[in-house]
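How it folds:
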Amino acid sequence: QVQLVESGGGLVQPGGSLRLSCAASGSIFKIYVMGWYRQAPGKQRELVATVTSGGNTNYADSVKGRFTISRDGAKNTVYLQLNSLKPEDTAVYYCNAGIQKTSTGYVLEFGGQGTQVTVSS
């Protein structure tokens, strides 16, 4: 089985920073794209950022220049550094990964349970 566990959420004032982590564990042969999504109350889930196994990154326009995604291959972990936070960044943040469990298996998509980020004064 594969698990993705997020951590690092919390309450922060506008302009503040947080660092989210998501560690994948279990039966893993290779991890391909890892990413972060978020869902605010009453809104659809939206892509925040992704990073490929080669280190290529992609960001939503709303977070460009403020958020940074990175990954540690040795630890099967993806990070999201959130800077200059705004109230509209308030949401549950979910990590997601494309994982191949065996050398001959398909790449399957796995997701975490989410971590709450609240930006408020």
In short: The mean pLDDT is 96. DSSP finds no helices and eleven strands in the chain. The first strand starts at residue 2 and ends at 7.
